[in-house]
Amino acid sequence: MQYYILFNTALVIVSCFLSWIEPKIFVITLRGFQMIDGKIVLVLALIGFISICYELLRKKAQLFWVYGLVGFIITIITSMVFYSYYQNNYSGGPGIYLAALGGIQLTGTYVVYLFQQGKQ
């Protein structure tokens, strides 16, 4: 499960370097790290990546709440960005979709962890 979290945090980090807004007539292409929302998502993903690397080095799984919180905040931020794009008739690029997917998967991993703890 820890390698799955590592993959998802790396997915969110990569998504911040892809385009979040597709170009139109009066809209320029913006990458995730060029926007304040993308910078916040990048910092959160880096926090998650560093903490999962720390767990893998120590070989103990104890920081699952960090990934759940990081994933939930990333999901909230990307949802607000999607709503803003919908209001302004922008088309989202592949980066925003990957960031949303990574945030949802991190949150889902935490929920699965909670169910596994309840069974034990």
Shape, please? elongated
**In terms of structural class, how would the helical and strand content be classed?**
mainly alpha
Gap between N and C termini: 17 Å
Run of helices and strands: HEEHHH
In total, how many beta strands?
2
Uncertain residue ranges? none
What count of helical segments does DSSP give? 4
Residues in helices, as a percent range: over 70%
Oligomer: single chain
Tell me the Rg in angstroms.
Answer: 15 Å
Strand count, sense and barrel status of the largest sheet are: 2 strands, antiparallel
Overall pLDDT, averaged?
Answer: 89
Query: Approximately how much beta-strand content do the residues carry?
Result: under 5%
| Spatial ordering of strands, largest sheet | 1-2
Q: Any chance you could write out the topology, listing elements then pairs?
A:
Elements: H1 2-15, E1 19-21, E2 30-31, H2 36-58, H3 64-88, H4 94-119
Antiparallel strand pairs: 1-2
Helix pairs in contact: 1-2, 1-4, 2-3, 3-4
Model description:
This protein has 120 residues and is mainly alpha-helical. Helix 3 (64-88) packs antiparallel against helix 4 (94-119). It has a two-stranded antiparallel sheet with strand order 1-2. It has four helices and two strands, in the order H-E-E-H-H-H. It is elongated and about 55 Å long.
Brief description of this entry?
The chain is mainly alpha-helical and 120 residues long. The chain is built from four helices and two strands.
Keywords:
single chain; 120 residues
